[in-house]
């Protein structure tokens, strides 16, 4: 950022520079739109949950409210930016998960069944979140165009590059587009591993040119699998806790799947951070997936994932995709007033 010589009390940086400075400060001090899967490290939702009745976060004290903002009611198209070095097999796992969200005919319990809870959320006209989530255009950034250390704000610069490049830019669709920035295992993003494994927000027109809902999720394989690939890896500070076997043979990418699901669910129900969330502070919202951190099955809560399924090879999962199995965190149902998923035993 250029330096500006101060010649008096009224001298200020040019408006665009001042605006970007304010945006940088805002993004660096707004941890609400972030997530990590280890339940003991979640942000302060204990005062929202009260006493568990069904273990899965059930409480009459949760005040999840609709704040009149938009939700994604048009068919959702997920545009993916592969930032850094990705193997074809890793991309295939993630693509198949996204394609499974709207799949018809998947074996129960299914990813599509999980999405049905997200679909229950509506906008102020009563229109539900779209049942259709499809994979859109993709962009590869193999040469780390913005470096291997990214800030929250530079994630938006990565998106700007992808939608403005002269060669096959990503489509710009503010109404139903959803943009995923996925960073490879040699990229460090601000607060990664320390506070977050992923976050979502929307791009600033002053920086990107458009207001686009987006999420970032990192590959934790080299940096912190015990933090961000739980329960397929476990933190070093918890001796004796054994990791579960991942269903697709890639601990970090299988761990990413649940974070991706978490962020897509919250982007659909709270794309501009003014729709569905609990809490009084819009700069620190607790959203529909935040309320269910660490819960993957019936009885889940605290450090217990809940009752899961075992594959024939010993891998652990809780829902089926088109051809693969996945472990995905549950989300909050404002109809049932507790966390739920397609593998719930009371369904």
UniProtKB/TrEMBL annotation:
Statement: the UniProt record of this protein carries the keyword Ribosomal protein: no
Principal cellular location given in the protein's record: secreted
Keyword entries, A-Z: Apoplast, Secreted, Signal
Signal peptide (UniProt feature, chain positions): 1-34
Ranges annotated as spanning the membrane: none
Compartment(s): Secreted, Extracellular space, Apoplast
Xref: Pfam families: Phi_1
Superkingdom assignment: Eukaryota
GO annotations of cellular component type: apoplast
Sequence similarity: Belongs to the EXORDIUM family.
Protein name: Protein EXORDIUM-like 3
Protein source organism: Malus domestica
């Amino acid at each position: 950022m250029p330096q500006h010589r101060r010649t008096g009390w009224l001298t200020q940086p040019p408006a665009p520079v001042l605006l970007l400075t304010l945006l940088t400060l805002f993004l660096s001090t707004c941890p609400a739109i972030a997530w990590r899967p280890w339940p003991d490290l979640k942000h302060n939702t204990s005062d929202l949950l009260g006493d568990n009745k069904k273990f899965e976060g059930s409480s009459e004290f949760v005040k999840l409210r609709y704040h009149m903002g938009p939700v994604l009611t048009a068919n959702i198209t997920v545009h993916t930016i592969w930032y850094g070095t990705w193997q074809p097999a890793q991309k295939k796992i993630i693509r198949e998960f996204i394609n499974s969200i709207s799949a018809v005919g998947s074996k129960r319990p299914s990813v599509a069944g999980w999405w049905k809870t997200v679909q229950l959320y509506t906008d102020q006209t009563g229109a539900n979140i779209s049942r259709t989530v499809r994979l859109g255009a993709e962009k590869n950034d193999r040469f780390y165009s913005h470096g291997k250390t990214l800030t929250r704000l530079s994630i938006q610069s990565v998106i700007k590059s992808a939608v403005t490049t002269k060669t096959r830019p990503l489509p710009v669709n503010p109404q139903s587009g959803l943009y995923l920035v996925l960073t490879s295992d040699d990229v460090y993003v601000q607060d990664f591993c320390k506070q977050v494994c992923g976050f979502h927000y929307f791009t600033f027109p002053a920086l990107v040119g458009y207001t686009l809902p987006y999420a970032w999720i990192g590959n934790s394989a080299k940096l912190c699998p015990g933090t961000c690939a739980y329960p397929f890896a476990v933190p070093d500070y918890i001796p004796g806790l054994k990791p579960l076997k991942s269903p697709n043979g890639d601990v970090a990418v299988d761990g990413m799947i649940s974070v991706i699901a978490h962020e897509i669910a919250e982007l659909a129900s709270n794309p501009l951070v003014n729709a569905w969330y609990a809490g009084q502070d819009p700069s620190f919202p607790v959203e529909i997936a935040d309320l269910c951190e660490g819960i993957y099955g019936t009885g889940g809560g605290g450090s217990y994932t809940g009752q899961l399924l075992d594959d024939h090879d010993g891998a652990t999962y809780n829902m089926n995709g088109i051809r693969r199995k996945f472990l995905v965190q549950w989300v909050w149902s404002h109809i049932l007033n507790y966390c739920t998923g397609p593998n719930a035993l009371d369904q």
